[in-house]
Amino acid sequence: MKKMLAAAVSRVLSRVAQKPASRVLVASCNYSNDAMFEIKKCDLYRLEEGPPVTTVLTREDGLKYYRMMQTIRRMELKADQLYKQKFIRGFCHLCDGQEACCVGLEAGINPTDHVITSYRAHGLCYTRGLSVRSILAELTGRRGGCAKGKGGSMHMYVKNFYGGNGIVGAQGQIAEAFNMAALWKLPCVFICENNLYGMGTAAERAAASTDYYKRGHFIPGLRVDGMDVLCVREATKFAADYCRSEKGPIVMELQTYRYHGHSMSDPGISYRTRQEIQNVRSKSDPIMLLKDRMVNSKLATIEEFKEIDVEVRKEIDDAAHFAITDPEPPLEELGHHIYCDNEPFEVRGSSQWIKFKSLS
Amino acid sequence: MAAFAATAGGLLRLRAAGSEGQWRRLRGAGLLRGLLQPESATGVAAQRRRVAHFTFQPDPEPREYGQTQKMNLFQAITSALDNSLAKDPTAVIFGEDVAFGGVFRCTVGLRDKYGKDRVFNTPLCEQGIVGFGIGIAVTGATAIAEIQFADYIFPAFDQIVNEAAKYRYRSGDLFNCGSLTIRAPWGCVGHGALYHSQSPEAFFAHCPGIKVVVPRSPFQAKGLLLSCIEDKNPCIFFEPKILYRAAVEQVPVEPYNVPLSQAEVIQEGSDVTLVAWGTQVHVIREVAAMAQEKLGVSCEVIDLRTILPWDVDTVCKSVIKTGRLLISHEAPLTGGFASEISSTVQRRCPECV
């Protein structure tokens, strides 16, 4: 009886709402609007209190984080594919496995806060507001890219996001930055995405102390589970509030993992085992963790997630198509913006007969 | 000593370029050797003491910028900084020891006048100073960073070359640190030895995206510094430290600009072009006077002023007129900026040199 009724309702509703019948049926049945989850307690350094150990996740937020993480995951895998097909050249550092870090970070800060990072930046580019299209087109070096095709993987910028930087800071630079930030109480959160390897060197072989959250010395620190988007969100909120209340800088270490190698030219298995990667994938994958949580607490159903997957896949495929078919920037632009407001001067190209004009 | 070595080197370079005739005549006369050595060192071949000697030659009082005041180089710098902080509410000055006035007194009185938020000390970290300066400039404020001696600029080399110079280009003009100016005392001072005498302009000349400027006098320094601060590209301003007290001139009190990337022909001539920058300009002026008096050689003296981007046209125009070029600088000979000038001139005016 109930089944017949349900079927009738679904027929009616599907005609009205023009959504897949199953979805409408589910929507009218059982889901909750939000749920409380326990998250891992953060290790604290020089802090009396830390972020909360429970948090409330709304259905809307959950689906949003899932969509963002899935988009980043698929975008990185598409970039991998494009690189192997030689549409993307040069350097490409992928962040699949670390999606919870960028999505959780964005969830914990305001869009008007400023973010800067190093080269493993595609995820952050997306969360800070760049479209997948502009990211993939930038990777393939086309004029539809966010840096007009001139920047590539490591030089993507958008308002309130200062890259994407190819050159990385050394320990001395960080020490000086810590000193100045602490001295002048600058509201700065220093985040270390600890994916356990520096290129091909395991952290234990490169660092005298791998408790990176303590390396700020006189700056307080948190160590956060970087595979759990809710943990990252709460920790980021806590760190941002700490800075906003003028207490000075704070260090945050996100314990995370990258599935790919350091870059596309690194197979990623010469310094770690496939077993290790597989372990992390099956036990702590951030997307899987969020999905399981939401399904188990009835915030959403597997079908909804599958739908989101389909939509994301389509978005990525469209973006990849655009990235491959968009024309490259005109060669004249190679010399632009070296200086500002200077009279245009000639820049020599790769041979003495090739000249570009430097306009600004 | 460096000055004369460079001068000799410059002459050798010219000879190698193939202009044999005139030089043979001069060398044959034996006067050239006499010209090169200071008068106190004649005779004894073994132990010749070469002393870095010059006399500062002030320019005539400028009339077109209003009231002037007698200032030495560091006072002219203070005046420029004072004008900048008064005009631009976002301007800040920072560096080691700038708060009390600086080790060369270039920032005396500014902290009292403008407050400790605008004139402040940094910790001892050149890399941090420039990195911090880049960050301030990116937010849109005007950052005037002081590196205490040009010899100490090398820890900041990465920040300057890899970050500051490329900020605009790599972000496709979305961001820039154009309002950054880095000032540093530069050049030999007599007792500076290894780490208080260096002239590193050639290292930075190799880096597109920044501007490098060296003034020769208080009037030039104030105008050039104001131009650097207002320029929308990151600039490095080297101040010849030996001129801080020794150079005294009438300098306008109000702000004014001396254009960047324009060399100045200080003295017109017809026989040979002499190019220099900073303190060496005064040595070259003396050389020009001696050459005129003792050899009847009419020298055209050019102060390059901006090292990068340098004024190729003025120098080439002069060489086309005179047919000979001599470049003199304090920095080491190999890879010094004279090599860039001489190779560009030889490429641009092959028939002349």
What does this structure look like?
The complex is a heterodimer of chains A (360) and B (353). In chain A, strands 2-7-8-4 form a four-stranded mixed beta sheet, covered by helices on one side. Chain A has twelve helices and ten strands. The model of chain A is unreliable at 21-28 (pLDDT under 50). Chain A is α/β, with parallel strands linked by helices. Chain A starts with a helix and ends with a strand. In chain A, helix 3 (59-84) crosses helix 4, helix 3 (59-84) runs parallel beside helix 12 and helix 6 packs across helix 12. Chain B is α/β, with parallel strands linked by helices. Chain B has two domains: 68-252, Rossmann fold (3-Layer(aba) Sandwich); 264-349, 3-Layer(aba) Sandwich (Rossmann fold). Chain B is built from 14 helices and 13 strands. Chain B has helices at residues 2-16, 20-28, 31-36, 73-87, 110-114, 126-138, 157-164, 167-170, 201-205, 218-230, 243-246, 280-295, 312-322, 337-348; strands at 68-72, 92-95, 119-121, 143-146, 180-186, 211-213, 235-240, 248-252, 264-267, 272-276, 299-303, 306-308, 325-327. Chain B has a seven-stranded mixed beta sheet with strand order 3-2-4-5-7-6-12, sandwiched between helices. A four-stranded mixed beta sheet of chain B has the order 9-11-10-13, sandwiched between helices. In chain B, helix 4 (73-87) packs parallel to helix 10 (218-230), helix 6 (126-138) runs parallel beside helix 7 (157-164) and helix 13 (312-322) crosses helix 14. Chain B is globular. Mean pLDDT of chain B is 88; it is low at 1-46. Chains A and B meet through helix 7 of A and helix 6, helix 7 and helix 8 of B.
